[in-house]
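User: quick one - fold this with 3,4-dihydroxyphenylalanine bound?
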Amino acid sequence: MIDKINALLAEVDGFETQSMEELEAFRIRMLAKKGAITALFQDFKSVEPSQRKEMGQRLNQLKQSATQKVEQLKSRLEAEAAAQKAGKDKPDLGMPAGFNPIGSRHPLSVVRNRINSIFERIGFVISEGPEVEDDWHNFSALNFPEEHPARDMQDTFFVEKQPDIALRTHTSSVQVRVMENQKPPIRTISPGRVFRNEAISARAHCIFHQVEGLYIDEGVSFADMKQTLLYFAREMFGKETQIRLRPSFFPFTEPSAEMDVSCSLCGGKGCNICKYSGWIEIMGCGMVDPNVLENCNIDSNKYSGYAFGMGIERIAMIIYQIKDLRMFFENDLRFLRQFTSAI
Ligand code: DAH
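Assistant: Sure. Structure tokens for the protein plus 3,4-dihydroxyphenylalanine:
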């Protein structure tokens, strides 16, 4: 019996735990009704009277140690749990800083930046002009005759009680400002927001974005324009892209053309994006009308140039296969989060 007591004493002394469950199991194993120490008290009844005193003392000592151990460990574990809980409510100053979620650029900005950088690589510089324009820069200098039906091409928002002031209907107004202020050679692109009084639908909006291009120098030809636009189309839509120029009319260019690119989705075979034609119209262009050069004090006998203009929404819709223009303006995060770009 003495051996059993000593073995249990050693076990009690050596016992350590971090868990309440383990401590409870220890208590039951030692001190509960069917526990090891309780069992020894049963055995004690049959101990010889000569040994009783010493054995009784040892047994009581064992019971005391076990009870103390359980109480000590219990209060320590309870204190630790309380400290941990209190710590959770306080800020942990040692914690690594959280990262702010990084936003993504709007798809129209991504496309505008791509267009800009394609032209910047071949020497075009960016210029900007005001969104509220006068009649001269938006129409007259660009060879739109007074009362001419050509002005009906673009439904204008006029500023109240000031018939000469309007929201610009195209970024071509910026080319007038640049030509008025700079001497050729001029190589510039002008991205910006434009406004037209149109009913909002999947294909039209009263606010949209354009990029205007202008190149003026001595001896600039239609062939120069065609080559520049072919370079742009291939950078934008892929190396295999073909372009096609169709005759058109704009008051500020002569001759004028509209440019189509071969559909990059079906490779020109025909699909629902290109409406089974194999071609997608992306911009207007032409040789700057000599009247426009003269309006801006540039000698049309010495200088010639080309201009072009395209809608950013239209290019973005083609590239990302977006069927409804209104998506760009709704700020629906489920839509916007699909566009991530570093540029
Ligand atoms: N300003 C025209 C528009 O908004 C686009 C355009 C066509 C611009 C031909 C040009 C050009 O510079 O040469 O529809």
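One thing worth noting: The chain has a mean pLDDT of 91.
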